[in-house]
Amino acid sequence: MAQGILEITDANFEKEVLQAEKPVLVDFWAPWCGPCRAITPLVEELAQAMGDQVTFAKCNVDDNPVSPGKYGIRAIPTLIVFKAGEVVEQITGMEPKAKLEEAINKAL
Fold this sequence. Notes:
- By secondary structure, this protein is of the alpha/beta class.
- It has helices at 13-18, 34-50, 66-70, 97-105; strands at residues 5-7, 24-29, 55-60, 78-83, 86-92.
- It has a 5-stranded mixed beta sheet.
- Strand 4 and strand 5 form a beta hairpin.
- The chain is globular, with a radius of gyration of 12 Å.
């Protein structure tokens, strides 16, 4: 896991995401997913640039099926931006960095 990116599990999802003081971007992914691996460098770049304003996190859907199920995630990668425990924006599939930044900025 890249520096500055939290590992989210079903056990810590509520504390780290829903109760977080800052907005949180959660990348729902799996190790076997090609597009998930392709979007990871973009998420890491954004974490470096915006990590002081937003918490960045990854949730492996294979190891943690409850949290993705609560949000109706049927395809990965799916990135969800949360603010004060609410979904602000949801992106599914490989998208350009600018679209990810736009989604994050909606929570700031």
